[in-house]
Amino acid sequence: MQSFISLMGQYPIVFIALAFVFAAVIGSFINVVIFRLPVMMKREWQQECNQFLEEYQPAAYQALEKQKLLKPLDQFPERFNLVVPNSTCPKCKAAIKPWHNLPIVGWLLLGGKCAACKQPISVRYPIFEFLNGALVAILAWHFGPTIEFALAAVLSFALIAMTGIDLDEMLLPDQLTLPFLWLGIIANYFNTFTSLDNAIIGAIAGYLSLWSVFWLFKLLTGKEGMGYGDFKLMALFGAWLGWQMLPLIILLSSLVGAVIGISMIIFKGMGRNNPIPFGPYIALAGWIALVWGQDIVNWYLGTL
After folding, report:
1. Residue 137, in any domain of the structure
2. Which of 246, 26, 28, 235 lies closest to 136 in space, CA to CA?
3. Could you tell me which residue ranges the Prepilin peptidase A24 N-terminal domain spans (predicted)?
């Protein structure tokens, strides 16, 4: 392993290329996570609701059971998780052959259409695969073959998955935010990106920063401006990068969110009351801070 790391250090272009290919392959699996994890969560919620009704509202449960309304998400197989069943076309249910699952290349070979029914395959699949590969290639260029690179790449995988799910479902799953929050604290136990003290304070401050804004906005308007998943995502970045990076992340995410939000109002005719997920903006801002945060802070302080 040490000799491989040394070899990659001597040939950075090879390392960056390998990082891109590997991350693009992982991106194919991330597409599966983005689609299947919310389905798995909805099934779990429905099963919990059914159990609650059966125990505490037996009359309502029997009525729903009689109408056959209790089976959760029947359009999916009973055994449904991140591994099984094998991927199929959402239209004709034809099995997707392994070479059709090749990241980016498979979509291009198929011409963006299902091999069986010729229905269009969403372009988001190769986009997410390419984006995943590009982000990790940048990390490889920035960090080199180091433990920092490996951890940052794993975090990037999670951020891509969270971004896709939030765009689709307006949801940041605890199954992703909480484990990666703890991973950040564990990584910084060894002072990987910041000190352990900064990481713990960062996790607390990250959560409270948006939690405070949420309650202030709700007290003033009576509306909820964001979800609790956004608080946890900010806590995640505090745990990874320390409390010092939180102002930069809040500033960048607010700036990106404002630009995109205004653009959608102008060009897509969306109303101001249309909900827009804030998680992708936090994820993008946090990733930028992960790579260039200290350079941005030093540049800003140098201009004062």
Report:
1. no
2. 26
3. 21-143
Sign of the four-CA dihedral 178, 184, 189, 194: negative
Q: What angle do CA 108, 124, 268 make, to 5 degrees?
A: 130
What is the tally of structural domains in the chain? 2
Q: Which of 282, 264, 284 has its CA nearest to residue 273?
A: 264
Are residues 237 and 198 in contact, defined by beta-carbon separation less than 8 angstroms?
no
Boundary of a domain, candidates 109, 136, 168: 109
In whole angstroms, give the CA distance from residue 280 to residue 192: 25
**Chain segment 129-169, per-residue pLDDT in tens:** 999 999 999 999 999 999 999 999 999 999 999 999 999 99
Stretches in the chain below the pLDDT threshold 70: 1-2, 4, 64, 67-75, 267-273, 304
Domain that holds residue 297: 146-303
User: What tokens were used for 101?
Assistant: 């699952």
